[in-house]
Design a protein that fits this description.
Layout lengths: L2 H22 L10 E12 L2 E10 L8 E17 L5 E20 L2 E17 L9 E14 L5 E10 L5 E11 L8 E12 L2 E15 L2 E12 L4 E14 L1
């Protein structure tokens, strides 16, 4: 993608943000007592990497209504991999990233969809330097992402998400199924069940299979967690652990 195209799409995304904010500030705005801001944070650890991220999700019309949303996210971590370019040498990497993604929420029946699209900035540092990967130094690109939350019945859940980035052709997907349990311990209970996850960029791939706990609600907070087995294209296998927290805030 040329620099001119990148600048044009970035300007379009910024205009989309401004337009969405202006439209959502009108009469369709939710009641002041309803949450319009969600703070979220997560951790992801496996044998060859550890990442953390935090961000916020703005919903001027409220989280129960269709409409404009804006996701701001920043994170980073460390990782290692085996470089074919360097003759099988192990490379240690660090990463920092930031995303600004406007989007929309649409709910139909028991299904909720979210779609986001916007610019992404990433910084990777490698020891030793690996000319065989495009994830080196500063990179600017575009990312689009989609999320699904679907409750086929009162006691079952299907969740999924997928994303695609122009940086190193980065892509990821996750699908999970859950059954509602422990209603006596948590508000509305929690969902427990299997999940499958996939990550990829350039010549690297990672596959995961595990168990998740979703929607552990306490007052204004909501927790989720997962543990399972991961394997990547380096031939490395290990356990993975993921933890997420979100908090909804009213104005």
């Amino acid at each position: 993608m040329s620099r001119r195209c990148v600048r044009a799409v970035a300007v379009s995304a910024a205009a989309f943000v401004v337009a969405g904010v202006c439209l959502s500030a009108g009469p369709s705005r939710a009641d002041d007592d309803e949450p319009h801001v969600m703070l979220f944070s997560g951790r992801d650890i496996w044998r060859n990497g550890a990442f953390a991220y935090s961000g916020l999700l703005l919903a001027p019309g409220g989280f129960e209504e269709d409409g404009f949303m804006l996701k701001l996210l920043a994170g980073g971590g460390v990782y290692r991999y085996i470089s074919g370019w360097l003759g099988g040498e192990t490379v240690i990497g660090s990463e920092w990233m930031a995303q600004v993604m406007p989007g929309f929420r649409i709910k139909r029946g028991n299904a909720e969809f979210k779609y986001f699209f916007g610019p992404e900035l990433r910084r990777n540092k490698l020891w030793p330097d690996d000319p065989g990967t495009s994830l080196r130094g500063w990179n600017f690109g575009l990312r689009m992402a989609g999320e699904l939350w679907y409750e086929p019945t009162r006691d079952t859940l299907v969740v999924g998400d997928a994303s695609l980035s122009t940086i190193a052709t980065g892509h990821a997907a996750r699908i999970a199924y859950g059954w509602r349990v422990a209603e006596e311990l948590f508000t509305d209970g929690v969902y427990v069940g299997p999940e499958a996850q996939y990550f990829g960029s350039d010549a690297y791939r990672q596959y995961r299979v595990g168990l998740h706990i979703t929607s552990m609600k306490t007052e204004i907070t909501e927790w989720s967690a997962a543990v399972g087995f991961a394997r990547d294209t380096d031939g490395t296998s290990s356990l993975y652990v993921r933890l997420n927290l979100s908090v909804k805030l009213a104005d």
